[in-house]
Prior knowledge:
alpha+beta; two-stranded antiparallel ribbon; 8 helices; six-stranded antiparallel beta sheet
Amino acid sequence: MKKRIVCLTLALLMSATQVVSVSASREDELREEQAITSQQLDATYSRMDELAYAKSQLENEISELDSNLVSVMVSIDTLKGDIDNKEVDIIKTKQDLAKAQKARDKQYESMKLRIQALYEQGGDAAWFQMMLNSEDLSELLTRAENTQQMYEQDRKNLDKYVNTINEVNNLKTQYESDKAELEEMKASYEQQSYDLQCQIDQKKSESADYENEIAYAQQQATEYANLLAEQTAEIQRLEAERIAAEEEARRQAEEEAARQAAEEEAAAKAAEQEQDSESEEEENVEYDEDGNEIENTDDADDESESDDGVEYDENGDSVDNAGASDDVEYDEYGNVIDSDNTVSPDDYESEQSSDSDSSSSSGSGSSVVDFATQFVGNPYVWGGTSLTGGADCSGFTQSVYANFGVSLPRTSYEQQNAGTEVSYADAQPGDLICYGGHVAIYMGNGRIVHASNSVDGIKISDNAAYRTIVSVRRLV
Length: 476
């Protein structure tokens, strides 16, 4: 009877398994699609980080070019002022030259008139007339000295004006040369200004392209995130339907088993009652030679045993015959249920959780951090899991924690459900910091170590909250 009940239960469970197999297959397909979507989301966020980094570099270059352009413009303004000053100097020099030439010409004319008058009055005999007209030698010498001084003064003035004119001409030439040099420098600076402005315009155009790419990547990330949410909701729905179908199948199997057991038990009781009735009718009584009834002690003992359900050995001690009882229950897998020593599913899950907590606490968060930081500087490779040859964010965390016996799912989205949830305020070294499409290992003091992007590779960041933190998971 027991075997028939077990077989019936197993048959019903196998039928239920076939019913839910289609749902489970679709659930597995969705989980694979979810893993691919999560990897695509990770790659999109990584691309966004790379674009943001490149855009930041461009903005730094634009800032530097702007600074250079300002310096060049200041130099151009300074040169314009210098050129204007040179223009003023040249104009003033021209005026001084005109005055000097005019004074020289006037002095020259005066000198000619004096010489002319001197010779016209005396001609070749001017010196003779001067001696005759002199009353004495002293007057003669005085007149001669005055005449000589007049000639010398005229000569000095003439030389002075000639020198002045030469100096003014030289100064004019120098000023014009300086002006030409300043104008040449001004033209050079203006060319530099033009070139810098062209570079700035080009960099700004490239920056705008990066902004467009970042916006497009953000749109893709949003679409991937929405798709992940839809896939998660569908998986949860299918999982709930599968669990409900299994529970319903199990309930029906238990009801059917109970019904069969009740029918067979009723039939067994009826057969036993019929057998007992027949035994009573066929009972024989024996008498001794004197006609007295002989008591059958063996039958009495057997009847006593059947009445109290207890057997005795040859010494009169009771024998344990619990194994002969038919009141035994079986679970859906055909195992005997010991009602006096049965662990409920809740207690089992609690014990499993306790065992998991005790085993996971054997690791050290600081050991995880020390192990992870030795790979700083190694490359970022999308889809990679090698700590030396290249890994992406989730591949890095998976490989690091695997060294400490902690098994993590492959994608950052799945790793958000690993371990135990804690708040960021209570985060400890070795905890997993989860972002949207990214994961990192917390080092303490607000720092993280993570596989960032293809530009920076595996690195340490000083601000763990540089992006929105979705979850903090305690693994060790």
